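Narrative of activities, Objective 1.

The group set out to show that a structural description can be obtained from nothing but a protein's sequence at a throughput compatible with the screening campaign. Below is one input-output pair from the validation batch, recorded exactly as produced.
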Amino acid sequence: MVEAAAQHGPQPDVNRAGCPSRLVLEHVTSRWGVLALAAPLERSYRFSELRRARDAYDEARES
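Output recorded for this entry:
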């Protein structure tokens, strides 16, 4: 298993500034990342449905 990891480069380390995993974490933990990941747990959504739900949430937060 260690040999396979060596073939694919260094192991991800989110503590390292240049780690590509950090970009993924930034998106997942962003304002909408968690909602976009949690919504499909209920059912399948089209992208436009997620966008409308996000927009409705924004409007509710502003009022």
